[in-house]
Design a protein that fits this description.
Length: about 220
């Protein structure tokens, strides 16, 4: 997978006003932490984070803290301003090349599902997959070919196989499927027909007297 180099400055944990001043100067506060060491508060130029954040790929970060020895890390968390959508904080996790790590990797679809020609639509349920592997085996993204998917077909986690990578999801989890679009069913009240009563004339049975004539 590709690597990105970022230069950072150490900073002192301070007041909200100091942090806001950092941001006004184009710097973003963050934290670097790793197993066995104290977390290091840092700041980096906002522009240096863009290739790491606004991408569909996963990268290893070579972090240079004030010309100290470069530290390999991954982006573990990112926070955005809810109004401006600017990056306001980030966390970098230090990694060791000989130890497995858990990381989320983006899913990329390729091909055109045959079910689309049949009137179906692609429904992608998962856009990132959690995996466990060595840093050197992290894929930049996971590519899934959907060309053979017809209506009602799906690709599950169990259908994927990447060498040296373990997926941390249930095997039956659906990643992508082809479904029929939901039809808008217009509900109309059923017509109620008035039941007409059929008037039946009663059958009258009359009993006549039989007159016997005397001879």
């Amino acid at each position: 997978m590709s690597e990105i180099s970022i230069k950072a400055k150490k900073r002192v944990l301070s007041t909200k006003g100091t942090v806001n001043k950092l941001r006004k100067n184009g710097e973003v506060p963050g934290i670097f932490y790793a197993k066995g060491i104290e977390p290091i508060p840092i700041s980096v130029p906002e522009l240096s984070l863009n290739p790491l954040v606004y991408t569909s790929e996963t990268h290893i970060v070579n972090l240079d803290i004030e010309n100290d020895e470069s530290k390999k890390s991954i982006l573990k968390n990112i926070q955005f301003d809810p109004v401006t959508d600017k990056i306001i904080h980030f966390d970098l996790l230090g990694i060791s090349l000989d130890q497995q790590i858990e990381i989320e990797v983006p899913v990329s679809l390729e091909g055109q599902a045959k079910g689309i020609k049949e009137g179906g639509i692609i429904q992608q349920s998962i856009h990132k997959l959690s995996i466990l592997c060595l840093p050197g085996d992290i894929p930049e993204h996971i590519t899934i070919n959907v060309s053979n998917l017809g209506i009602g077909d799906a690709i599950h986690v169990k259908d994927l196989a990447i060498d040296k990578v373990k997926f941390l999801h249930n095997d039956d989890v659906i990643i992508v499927s082809v479904v029929m679009p939901r039809a808008q069913v217009e509900t109309t009240p059923s017509a109620v027909e008035g039941a007409g009563e059929e008037k039946m004339e009663p059958e009258v049975i009359s009993k006549g007297k039989q007159v016997e004539e005397e001879e």
